[in-house]
Amino acid sequence: MSLDLAVTNGLLVDSQRIYPGVLYIDQGRIVGIxxxxxxxxxxxxxxxxxxxxxxxxxxxxxxMDPGYTEREDFTTGTRAAARGGVTMVIDHxxxxxxxxxAKELLEKRDHLQKRAxxxxxxxxxxxxxxxxxxxxxxxxxxLGFKGYTCAVHEADAILPGHLMEILTEIRRFNGIALxxxxxxxxxxxxxxxxxxxxxxxxxxxxxxxxxxAEELSVQTLIYVAKQTGARVAVAHTSLPSLAEQxxxxxxxxxxxxxxxxxxxxxxxxxxxxxxxxxxxxTPPPRKREEMERMWKCLAQGLIDMVxxxxxxxxxxxxxxxWNDIWSAPFGIPGVETVTPLLLDGVAHGRxxxxxxxxxxxxxxxxxxxxTGQKGSLSVGCDADLIFVDMRRKRVLDNSKVVSxxxxxxxxxxxxxxxxxxxxxxxxxxxQEGEVIGEPGWGRFVTRSDLR
Length: 451
Fold this sequence. Notes:
The chain is α/β, with parallel strands linked by helices. The protein has a domain at 55-367: TIM Barrel. It has helices at 74-83, 102-113, 134-139, 160-172, 184-196, 205-208, 211-228, 240-251, 263-266, 272-275, 288-299, 315-319, 338-347, 353-367, and strands at 5-8, 11-13, 18-20, 22-26, 29-34, 43-46, 51-54, 56-61, 86-91, 119-125, 144-148, 176-180, 231-234, 256-261, 305-307, 385-395, 414-424, 427-431, 434-435. Helix 7 (211-228) runs parallel beside helix 8 (240-251).
């Protein structure tokens, strides 16, 4: 019986090497890798001139569905993911209702299943009151948990005493928690001072969401992770010094992982002058020299994941921030631009294409328990592939944005290197910039130990 598909003539990429080869795909999975075409499948994709990478796993998205669908919904959000070479998203718990128990998690899973264009997993939420619900969410298929050490996005701050208690519980079943790390009391003090001064300009954001707040919070998390032995990850790390500290802690046996986002590799605090509320996210972009050092941390292997923190709002909700930055919400779109921006880094010699695979596919799969299913061009894994043309140039443009918000902070930026085709479990969902995948093709994915 013939196989479904073969991908020929492309250069296959993993985190260690680039090599010519043929991928055989059947029933949505990679079933063979060969040096030349020997089998005769029903269909052949000629990838001549292209790099073939495992699809990206974006471990940090807020698709807002159900609940805030005027901002994004799961169909528009996963269509945007497909455009950007993302074959799986991990959606966070901030929906209506928020996901603080197994019942809500399973209801959300069922709600999203018929809306997803690419595959998806879910994180459960952490708060003061749901300690006893954590194991139930883990057993129901959560890939991990999300918490905040500051009051933001209507979330309460998790203080150090509660953090110790939460991570002690998570360690009992070998779960993992991702934290937004900014020290709450310092942020409140800075806000008080800035408001007293009558400041409303966008440039106040880096003064309010200061480096010290992020540093204090991450250092506390390192300490608690060391004491409890719980696996933790730091979301959207903006400071290279913290990437270095976390790498050193890992050497000493602390199970801590570093996520950064494309915005910390491409935007700086100077952008508040020209982009204002459209670069209001937190932690904010830092100084140019820190942005440059983040690329070096990435090249040195100190960063585990580069995700989007996709959190879009309509431009109309952002605009008021020009006159009063306090009124604009935190968050930017990004799920469709992370991989292209990293490929531009490859084109400019900052990192290698194998390093893109490491932080977009292999490490996210390992950290969230998906090894053997996702993130690799290996026999037995899902045939989640992206086809990359490193000669392709494109100008990022608001009019071409797939996300419901219809804008990008990178409007007008030219990039070199782009995803020209995205495949999820053997099915093409994006080709030459056009998303052709249908809602309902994406499926819920849980950890390999629950399969």
